[in-house]
Amino acid sequence: MTGQIKLMLVDDHEVVRLGLRALLSMYPVFEIVGEATNADQAISMALQKQPNIILMDIRMPG
Questions:
Q1: Does residue 2 surpass a pLDDT of 90?
Q2: By the 8 A CB rule, do 61 and 11 touch?
Q3: Half-sphere exposure of 1 (CA within 13 A, CB side)
Q4: pLDDT, tens digit, for every residue of 12-60?
Q5: How many CA atoms lie within 13 A of 26 on its CB side?
Q6: CA 22 to chain centre
Q7: What pLDDT is stored for residue 42 in this prediction?
Q8: Which domains does the chain have, with CATH numbers?
Q9: DSSP string, 29-59
């Protein structure tokens, strides 16, 4: 795969999103294109941002 891998982070806990962002930012192949706090927001953002990968908490509101 050439270029960056577009990621979207979805979790209702900010500290989890911050930790994932910090960890993944160490790898230049990843570009974090968005963060969402619930599933409804995630769906809307995914349609707009078109990420390659969504890292998502499976137990959260919405």
A1: no
A2: no
A3: 7
A4: 999 999 999 999 999 999 999 999 999 999 999 999 999 999 999 988 8
A5: 5
A6: 12
A7: 94
A8: 5-56 (3.40.50.2300)
A9: TEEEEEEESSHHHHHHHHHHH--SEEEE-SS
